[in-house]
Amino acid sequence: MAQSKLNWKFKSPASPGLHAVVSPENSSCRTTWGFRLNLEKGIEFRLSDEKLELNGALISGKAQITFESFEYTLEERDSFYLPSMSTLVIKAQTNLVIFLGGAPCEGKGSFFVRKYDLTLPLGSIHQIHGKPPYQREVFMTITQEDPGSRLICGITEGEPGAWTSWPPHQHSKDLEEIYCYFDIPKPKFALHLSSRIPGEIEEVYAVSTGDFVIVPEGYHPTVGMPGVKSCYFWIMAAHSEKSRRYDLAINDPYFDL
């Protein structure tokens, strides 16, 4: 096993307010930001950024959101896309947590809301990846077909005690990623494996709700402990507009089944 200290795991704060958990200023990521917004019931927050496009997923709670004249009630796992230089008003109807991905905005994309709905037919938004024992359900919160600049994001839920992101794959040349874990309350855990070397594992992180693990490069499979689903909001940001694609992954040849 290769010896390294990647320092790719970040604990997101549970205190009220908006927290920049991951950014190019505190991590190896160049184009990817990961935020956590915590609001107590009744609190109103104005979300905006001058430079970044944002894709947010409501991880827990309920919120009333307002964008210009549009109003909507977000339920758990619903999501929204907010381009830079725009403002979204979020009012917490219960205590809530929102995970957000950010990337440089280049003037493309417009605000939208996506309801989390696993009854949608399989397609560009609702997907099934892999097969047992590494089958997982994926719901895209912003697809490569949705107008945007750099972001592709979604929610992945594995089977209990099973692998996700298998076979191990990497997209180092084109995209970075952050895995934001939820619905794994301690002492339950999943394992996130990281490696830049085919056929080897450099780091293994035990992850629970609120842990963010960056993937600036390399392979990154995950697995839940027995009875636990590996659940995460993943944030993928392209290094350029041309590489804003979901089909650029290269499998580890030692584990490509």
Task: Walk me through this protein's architecture.
The chain is an all-beta fold and 257 residues long. The chain has a single domain, classed as Sandwich (Jelly Rolls), CATH 2.60.120. Helices cover 0% and strands 46% of the residues. The strands form five sheets. Strands 1-20-17-22-14-13-12 form a seven-stranded antiparallel beta sheet, with no helix packed on it. Strands 2-3-10-5-8-11 form a six-stranded antiparallel beta sheet, with no helix packed on it. The protein is globular, with a radius of gyration of 17 Å. The protein starts with 8 loop residues before the first strand and ends in a 6-residue tail after the last strand. The model has no long low-confidence stretch (mean pLDDT 96).
Itemize the secondary structure elements and their pairings:
Elements: E1 9-11, E2 17-22, E3 33-39, E4 44-47, E5 52-60, E6 63-67, E7 70-74, E8 79-82, E9 88-92, E10 96-104, E11 112-114, E12 126-129, E13 136-142, E14 151-158, E15 163-164, E16 169-170, E17 175-181, E18 190-194, E19 203-207, E20 211-215, E21 222-224, E22 231-238, E23 250-251
Antiparallel strand pairs: 1-20, 2-3, 3-10, 4-9, 5-8, 5-10, 6-7, 6-9, 8-11, 12-13, 13-14, 14-22, 15-21, 16-23, 17-20, 17-22, 18-19, 18-21
Strand portion, in percent?
over 45%
N to C succession of SSEs: EEEEEEEEEEEEEEEEEEEEEEE
Rg over alpha carbons: 17 Å
CATH class: Mainly Beta
Mean pLDDT: 96
**Record field, number of beta strands:** 23
User: Fraction of residues in helices?
Assistant: under 10%
Q: Unreliable runs, pLDDT <50, ≥5 residues?
A: none
| Terminal residue distance | 21 Å
Q: What is the makeup of the main sheet?
A: 7 strands, antiparallel
Compute the number of helices: 0
